[in-house]
């Protein structure tokens, strides 16, 4: 006599359409913006997958995972396992101010390693001890920072900008081939900063800010 209570139902793998929709939603972007972010010249391939006409190719899965290391390739490509890989403490964490890290004034080794969902591609994490970005980013918040090329900078991004002599965290107010204009969190309290792009030695974009509160 068969015991139906012990029957194990097979797991239904999510379709390519469902997997892509879930990843795009997880990334916090729309389909067109997601395509641009992963370096596709057109979102047409993604729309075809979302319409059910095509599967996710190996090359597309590899491209997406290269931009989002937290994602599991086997899940994205074939629906096996879980979408997000188990967290590994992979981001170098420094106790010194993030501007000092950008200037190279740090120990040879980080003080530890941390992780933050969506920040697997960050170069390092470190506190911001200045009040230049308040009230948007509180003094003492830990910033997760990713290297960015000058040509990828956009108005509205919050950057850690370093030259040979200084480093600061500001928001991009304006940019052109001849200048980069930066503002603080409250432009009425923090003087704007204008830099010649040729002066910039390091650019990092703030991907996340973790505010510590003692309770």
Describe the structure.
This protein has 215 residues and is of the alpha+beta class. It is built from 6 helices and 9 strands, in the order H-H-H-H-H-E-H-E-E-E-E-E-E-E-E. A 7-stranded antiparallel beta sheet has the order 3-4-9-5-6-7-8. The chain has a two-stranded antiparallel sheet with strand order 1-2. A hairpin with a 2-residue loop joins strand 6 (167-176) and strand 7 (179-183).
Strand order of the largest sheet: 3-4-9-5-6-7-8
Portion in strands:
15-25%
In helices, the fraction of residues equals 10-25%
Number of domains: 2
Can you tell me the CATH topology of the largest domain?
Answer: Umud Fragment, subunit A
Task: Compute the separation of the termini in Å.
Answer: 59 Å
Give a quick account of the main beta sheet: strands, pairing sense, barrel closure: 7 strands, antiparallel
- Report the CATH superfamily of the largest domain: Umud Fragment, subunit A
The overall pLDDT, averaged over residues, is 88
The CATH class of the largest domain, by name, is: Mainly Beta
């Amino acid at each position: 006599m068969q015991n139906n209570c012990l029957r194990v139902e097979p797991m239904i793998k999510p379709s390519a359409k469902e997997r892509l929709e879930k990843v795009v939603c997880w990334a916090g972007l729309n389909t067109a913006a997601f395509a641009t972010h992963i370096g596709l010249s057109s979102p047409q391939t993604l729309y075809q997958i979302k319409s059910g006409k095509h599967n996710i190719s190996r090359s597309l899965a590899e491209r997406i995972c290269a931009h989002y290391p937290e994602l599991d390739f086997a899940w994205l490509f074939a629906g096996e396992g879980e979408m997000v890989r188990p967290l590994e403490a992979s981001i170098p964490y420094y106790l010194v101010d993030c501007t000092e890290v950008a200037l190279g004034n740090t120990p040879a080794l980080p003080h530890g390693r941390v992780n933050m969902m969506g920040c697997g591609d960050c170069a390092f994490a470190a506190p911001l001890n200045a009040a230049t970005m308040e009230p948007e980013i509180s003094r003492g918040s830990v910033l997760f920072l990713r290297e960015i090329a000058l040509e990828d900078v956009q108005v509205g991004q919050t950057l850690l900008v370093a030259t040979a002599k200084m480093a600061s965290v500001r928001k991009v107010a304006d940019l052109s081939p001849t200048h980069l204009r930066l503002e603080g969190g409250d432009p009425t309290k923090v003087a704007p900063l204008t830099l010649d792009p040729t002066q910039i030695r390091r650019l990092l974009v703030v991907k996340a800010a973790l505010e510590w509160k003692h309770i």
